[in-house]
What does this fold into?
Amino acid sequence: MTSARIDAPTTRETGPSAGLWVRRHANEVGLVGAIVILYVVLAPLAPNFLSSANQFNILRDAAFVGIIAWGMTLVLIAGEIDISVGANAAFSGVVLALMITHGVPIILACVLVILLGTLIGLGAGALRALFDIPSFIVTLALWLGLRGLAEVMSSAVPVVIPDLGFQNLGGGNIGGFPNPAIFMVVLLVIFIFISRRTVFGRSVYAVGGNAEAAKLSGIPVPLIRMSVFAITGCLASFAGVLFASRLGSGNSEAATGLEFDVIAAVVVGGTSLFGGRGSMIGTLLGVLFIAALGNGLVLMGVDPFMKNVVRGIVILVAVFVNIVSTKRLSRSR
It folds into this structure.
């Protein structure tokens, strides 16, 4: 009798808690299902889609998006947006190539370029936080300015990096696993910890949820905003280093459209465009979905311009689902 009395409440508690977990992670569960369906559809239509070599190619392509997407997730959770990341990556690659060709040691050049990208992001965050300029406007100006600077500095032609060993950083692999994907996974673990287990991570969610309430509770809102942009600038410049390594040159046209793939992956992953909600695991699934979709379209021989149409539809549908789920969540509260 005693054991029956103890077991019954436990059973009743398990049901609702399981249902609550599913509701909280509905987006991630749905994305896993979407990825499975995508693979089922593409397997017979896209030649060699399921081959191990192609799966590693998907991982490599996903890595360049994912590395930046971890920072972009924090930016969107904070209620902001950064459309300058692609231009920042291209600019960083050109600066890196010019520094190496002028005799700066590769390791030092990489460190300096990543520091420069961080400062660029910090500057964008300062304009947003201290002067209340909308982040879209600030990063739009950066997008134009950095891409233009990269073209001027390189005369719009690739700046070749003569060191062949450097190309292994972004183009090599370990046991078939692409180096950029290794960096992506390591950074994912770090950002999961930051977002879930640190005061900074909780503060980002608070600022995105209600900046005024966060300010009244003692959270340094301007510092949080500056920090998320600095992080994204750092990751964009690091991706630029990997792009330069993979291409063997600094190219002002590199990473064109990357910012849209990054934002699409984060939004598809369930991060709210209104701030306050999102997860790194959701972003990871969004990155893999976008990368697999793009790869499959290429293997099917779909026109490159039609790829942009598909990408636009995916973003639109993701935003629609995002808005609907946000409204439902607010009603349930």
